[in-house]
Design goal:
The protein is of the alpha/beta class and about 725 residues long. It contains 22 helices and 24 strands. The two termini are about 40 Å apart. It is an enzyme of class 1 (oxidoreductase). Pfam families: Flavodoxin_1, NAD_binding_1, PepSY_TM.
Length: about 725
């Protein structure tokens, strides 16, 4: 219910919310500019200051003090009305008041869409829509990230997803505040709130006059900083009085005796209304106004990233042309995916079930809410594994939610894990899901199964077992829709490792031509960075092999490091490739192995072809962030990959330090040996907030982890604790 509400309210009101928010953001600049240009009120009283202004402004009728501190004098002299900005120190007019046509137009646009009372009602509806979007957005964010306590935890997912959530986390509270206060002001404008205090009654006056305001005791008792408005009695009318409004209330002052004739204090409701108006407009709180204006400026970003998600090819809501509501669904397909691949298998499964007469719905595992489904007969959980057995981005919080349930769902479940059997924690997260579900007493429909490296055969075999269990015929068109491969021509290559019988190469490919739509949406090779993966489909096979990218889109090329593996079909073909030759490839995001965008030092540790993404991070380090590289190879003369570049990167300030270890040299050292040697330096860097990024083989990563365990022990830290903080990440193979 929450997700459709958020989606459809956002789509319906996007344009109007953007107009209201942007115009409000512009208006928030005016009070800030006014406050910057206004001096603070001097420590004087209203009576003394009014006398100063009266002496310099002929025909003075009224003085107003804005929340920003700006003081305006209104006069009518010789049949001519005038308005002046007054110096708070001297009471002398400094400049006439001029109305900005632009400000008037923006104000009318913001309050009423240039359409009077009907526009004000429309604006109220827009404020209500913004309120619904803010509340539902926070609820969806908490659900996706894994609970309210993790609302500000690091994010995973595609760029539109992360940008949408990141901006929403910053601007959401401000937009919620603006929408609530806007609705209050609408209610006050149309008299929908209880009335305030009545005007004070005017008792008999003395009938005397001609006294200077500086001599009137009631005015002398009120500090100028409390003034809102002071209206002067009409000339030659001894029955008239001074009318004064302050932050505390309103009263009448006898022009002859200076006594306060009557006084009406502001009610709590009026004070609340004043406070709400200040919150909404920023008048009297310039910094708050600027913050709210900045939040409002984020609305177009939220609208655009929201639209991108709705039109994204991995959007669960686009999987079924024949839409099934959660209440009618008989099958719920829960997806845990990191880069998007698993969504494509969910799409295939959903279509097959629908063609067989079923009513499937697809949802992220992070949106697991059994109470939404009234007629569900089964849950099919398709879960990939991120990193070292971690939950993928769309499954955050699933295990916590499962553990907190008092009773498991009545409908049975089945788990299908997706992974790469060359990794040590193959399908570890999917196995954890199955184990925890059984532990919670959830009935299992069929044993858990695995799909190795997007294998069509594995997926089809599981689908056949599912069809037999359900007693239906399933046609699983299991074409790997992720592999929308493009042709990449090889530009150049640098060869290493022949002397140590480990042929290795740095291959640089040309960027493919990207359609305009893909460039706008950031799909495929339109957006990538070092650390992402490229799937290369070898000739004679359909199973892609993945390589870490050593370049980003801004570099203008696609670069990988490849070592020839014994019997390796893809690596063998790549090592035979010459400039001008081509490969078929596609991009796969790897957001779990991106450098966090801050100024903390980076300790980069790699060996062999694991240097690829680390070199890419260094090459992209135009901000001169401290980066310290530990690199292990066999021989300095044979396979020191990027050896020609390290010196230049250090001279340019992109690389702070370089430490190399060579296993087939006189020193016979590995990177973990040099880490132990530099233990004091490592501890010092960790103490300043450094992050550790490791790329390479499993054996190297295990050796580094053992060394780091010893190095961090004096700090009462470990690789596990740093992983929990997002400061220790690995990309191993």
């Amino acid at each position: 219910m929450i997700r459709p509400l958020h989606r459809w309210v956002g789509l319906a009101a996007a344009l109007f919310v953007c107009v209201t928010a942007l115009s409000g953001g512009v208006l928030a600049l005016y009070p800030a500019a006014e406050a910057i240009g206004t001096m603070a009120a001097p420590p004087t009283d209203v009576g003394s200051f009014a006398a100063l202004v009266q002496d310099t402004v002929p025909g003075l009728e009224q003085i107003r003090r804005a929340p920003s501190g700006q003081i305006t004098a209104f006069a009518y002299d010789g049949g001519v009305a005038s308005k002046w900005i007054v110096d708070p120190e001297t009471g002398v007019p400094t400049s006439p008041v001029t109305q900005s046509p632009t400000k008037i137009w923006i104000t009318d646009l913001h309050r009423a869409f240039l359409a009077g009372d009907a526009g004000r009602i429309a604006t109220a509806v827009v404020s209500l829509a913004m309120l619904v979007l803010s509340v539902s957005g926070f609820m969806l964010a908490a659900r996706r990230i894994g609970g309210w306590r993790r609302l500000f935890a690091p994010l995973k997912g595609s760029l539109p997803q992360r940008l949408h959530l990141e901006v929403a986390r910053f601007a959401g509270i401000g937009l919620l505040l603006s929408s609530l206060t806007g609705l209050w002001l609408f209610a006050a404008t149309f008299g929908l709130l209880p009335g305030g205090a009545a005007l004070p009654a005017l008792p008999p006056v003395s009938g005397s006059g001609s006294a200077s305001p500086a001599a009137l005791s009631a005015l002398k008792d009120i500090p100028l900083s409390h003034l809102r408005e002071l209206s002067f009695p009409r000339i030659d009318n001894l029955r008239d009085v001074y009318t004064i409004k302050t932050v505390d209330g309103m009263g009448y002052v006898d022009q002859g005796t200076g006594a306060m004739l009557s006084w009406s204090a502001r009610t709590p409701l009026q004070q609340l209304s004043d406070f709400i108006k200040m919150l909404h407009t920023g008048k009297g709180a310039a910094v708050l106004g600027l913050i709210l204006g900045l939040c409002a400026a984020c609305v177009p970003i939220l609208a655009m990233t929201g639209l991108l998600q709705q039109s994204g090819r991995f959007s669960p809501s686009s999987f079924n042309k024949r839409r099934t509501s959660p209440k009618d669904a008989d099958t719920v397909i829960l997806v845990g995916s990191e880069g998007g691949t698993t969504w494509t298998f969910a799409q295939t499964l959903s279509k097959a079930l629908a063609q067989a007469g079923g009513k499937p719905v697809v949802a992220a595992m992070s949106d697991f809410t059994p109470e939404r489904y009234d007629h569900v007969a089964r849950y099919l959980i398709l879960a990939a594994t991120s990193g070292d057995g971690d939950a993928p981005s769309s499954a955050d919080g699933f295990l916590d939610r499962l553990a907190s349930m008092q009773h498991p769902p009545t409908a049975p479940f089945a788990v299908l894990g997706f992974g790469d059997s060359t990794f040590p924690r193959y399908c570890a997260y999917a196995d954890s899901v199955a184990a925890e579900a059984r532990k919670a007493g959830w009935r299992e429909l069929m044993p858990a199964a695995h799909v190795d490296r997007q294998s069509r055969q594995d997926f089809t075999s599981w689908g056949e077992a599912l069809a037999e269990k359900l007693g239906v015929a399933l046609s699983l068109d299991s074409k790997n829709t992720e592999a929308r491969a493009v042709t990449l021509p090889l530009l150049s290559r640098r060869d290493y490792g022949e002397e140590v019988q480990a042929p290795t190469a740095i291959l640089r490919f040309a960027l493919p031509r990207i359609p305009l739509c893909s460039r706008l949406m950031g799909h495929g090779f339109a957006r990538f960075q070092a650390g992402d993966l490229i799937g290369i489909i070898p000739e004679g096979d359909t199973v892609p092999r993945y390589y870490s990218l050593a370049s980003g889109r801004r570099d203008g090329f696609i670069e990988i490091c490849v070592r020839k593996q014994a019997g390796g079909l893809c690596s063998g073909q790549l090592m035979e490739l010459r400039p001008g030759g081509t490969v078929k490839a596609f991009l796969r995001r790897n957001p779990g192995f991106y450098p966090v965008d801050d100024r903390s030092p980076l300790i980069l540790i790699g060996a062999g072809t694991g240097i690829g993404p680390l070199a890419g991070f260094v090459r992209a380090n135009t901000a001169r962030r401290p980066m310290h590289l530990y690199f292990g190879a066999r021989s300095q003369t044979s396979d020191l990959l990027y050896g020609e570049d390290f010196g230049r990167w250090q001279a340019e300030g992109r690389l702070s330090s370089l430490v190399t270890a060579f296993s087939r040299s006189a020193e016979h050292a590995y990177v973990q040996d040099l880490l132990r040697r530099d233990a004091d330096v490592i501890r010092q860097l960790i103490g300043t907030g450094a992050r550790i990024m490791i790329c390479g083989g499993r054996g190297m990563a295990a050796g580094v982890a053992a060394a780091m365990e010893d190095i961090l022990s004096p700090l009462s830290l470990s690789p596990i604790t740093l992983k929990a903080e997002g400061r220790y990440v690995e990309d191993v193979y």
